[in-house]
User: Fold this.
Amino acid sequence: MTFSYHAPLRDMRFVIEEWLDAESFWRTVPAWTDLDTQTAQQVLEEAARFVTEQLAPLNSTGDLQGCRFEQGAVTTPDGFQEAYRAYVEGGWPALAASSTYGGQDLPQLLEVALHEMLAAANHAWLMSPGLTHGASACLQAHGSAALKHDFLEKIVTGEWLTTMCLTEPQAGTDLGLLRTKAVPAVEGAYRITGSKIFITGGEHDLTENIVHMVLARLPDAPSGTRGLSLFLVPKWLPGAPEPKRNSVHCDGIEKKMGLKASPTCTMQFDEAHGWLIGEPNRGLAAMFVMMNAARLQVAMQGVGHAECAWQRAIEYASERVQMRAVVPPPVRQYDPRQPVPIALHPAMRRLLMDVRCVVEGERAIGYWIGQWIDIAARHPESNARQQAERFASLLTPVAKAFFTANGFDSASSALQVFGGYGYIHEYGIEQTVRDSRVSMLYEGTNEIQAIDLLTRKVIDDNGKTLDALFALFRTEAASVKDQVPELRHVAEALERLCGEVSAVTGTIVEKVNEDPELPYRVAGDYLAMFGWLLLAFAWARSLRLATRAVSRDAFHESKCVTGRYFFDYKLVEFEHRKRLAEIGIQRTLPYLNQG
Assistant:
């Protein structure tokens, strides 16, 4: 079966032009006064052409071929180098970066949409260039003038790629256990010594130089995470007359469940030459700039996986003819005595609608977060910038964990549509299942995201940002009631969910002092509950806009059908996770033993 990914440009336009009304904000930004929806549409169309023609055809072949490791060098699959050159020549690495360093200064919103397409078309290929934006943001915020001069433009434009070197064999989530050492050398440089594992793109043949961002300890550093510093360590040291090879090497690449075309490397630093980024012992703060940027990109990987899975499943289900079925209106043209496409069978319709309502709702929320990031960076009023930054900070861990979990679940559901064929590589969906699973693990596991949300973003904030967000949701509910009276039940559902999340939050805050384990016990269910609330908000607004669309067409009609399905069927997931959170509030967890 031949499958070709098609970027969902019509739905992207709906979110950007109608759901967000992005152009209204762009007009308030001096650098974007000439940017309109037509220009944005052209950017997305060109991006769609690139991923469809250059990346999607390499997805399956790259998975089968994988990366090769020989004598310290990594060779990527056939076609990956050429695709990366086309990516750089098209200016895609620099889409939303500052023009000061070779970027195009376009909104982060458009970069979020780009990353959804890249992940859907070829997640493994995306892995190596995926850290470019975060690395450039980190250097721009914390790098010295010399480092910016020597490295930033080459990173922004994609001439050089970057890595993020955190994990060590004994230190995964607990970065306080890191042992890599940094010793002062000559002229402000340092010698870095240690081992790092699970380093995406630590070695490859896509660019001549690779710039490693490495967490390490100075000799007098305090213990724990407070003693970590961040260093820039390039594979090749720039300088005249010729670059010199640095003493950083790849010892091997991992054999993995998925993303086989992406090299996951074990890296060895043997007194490698590097430079400090930011202040001594403040490396984690600098690294978080890179990690936070990466987490929204990972969230959009979840959306991309779900979209790709949906497209594969609906295409197969529309072609595969099996068994007779009682076919409801408006498709009664099928003879009930003859087999029909399985897309018409109730069980398959249910699976397909589940995936569709999730992916379209998440797209709206993911792009919304991208717009909050733009507002935080560009809004003319400082209060608006600060509030937008708080919203983006609150929503990012929810998106990372919720979207990636749903991306994997959606891929698994889509595989079910194929039956036994889904388990065979030829049909492609089994690769999506394998590739999607890792997004729940890296850039902070989904459990860590849930703990971050509840403890740092909600409890430590005294619920202030949460309350402000719910005020926006209630305003949307009021708009639904006022503009589309027949959707009153949708507005009331959104208001009810806000009240229920607020009540659960209040109970957790009230009991946390007497039960310190409580937020860690319920964090996962709390985040999922919050995620379903976000999708309820997304669909309430989508239904309002689609119902009132001036040029009501088949797209808007379909949007209304999907939104009604979400509230009729899928929103019950909220009640399930709410009940689990309530049980976690009431009862402690048992300890496991091996007896």
Q: What stands out?
A: The chain has 18 helices and 13 strands. The first strand starts at residue 68 and ends at 70.
